Amino acid sequence: MKAFVYILKSEIGSLYIGSTNDLKRRLKQHETGHTQTTRNWKIYELIFKQEYPNLLDARRMEKKMKNWKRKDYIEKIVRDGYIKTRL
């Protein structure tokens, strides 16, 4: 089953990195306040998504990205439109 790593950007520039096997459902959960981190975001935009063959791979990449200390790595991924690094 395919899965996705995705990045949301708030109106003030905060970033949220997540993964899911149902992107449409997950975005709806963000809209309805289901996710604590994005609950108070009034406006956000899906700025990136990348497909993976399964949820385990997507979760591994999400974890790896969340451990990066430099925000410019994430900005480069968004600019380039894909993640170059391996799991």
What would your notes on this structure say?
- The chain is α+β, with helices and mostly antiparallel strands and 87 residues long.
- The chain is 37% helix and 26% strand.
- It is built from three helices and three strands, in the order E-E-H-E-H-H.
- Strand 1 and strand 2 form a beta hairpin.
- 16% of the residues are buried.
- The model has no long low-confidence stretch (mean pLDDT 93).
Secondary-structure blueprint of this entry?
Layout: E1 3-10, E2 15-20, H1 23-31, E3 44-52, H2 55-67, H3 71-80
Antiparallel strand pairs: 1-2, 1-3
Question: Level of helix content?
Answer: 25-40%
**What is the number of strand segments?**
3
Binned strand content = 25-35%
Main sheet? Answer: 3 strands, antiparallel
Strand line-up across the major sheet? 2-1-3
Rg, Cα atoms, Å: 12 Å
Distance linking N and C termini: 18 Å
Question: Could you list some keywords that capture this structure?
Answer:
alpha+beta, about 25% strand, three-stranded antiparallel sheet, about 90 residues
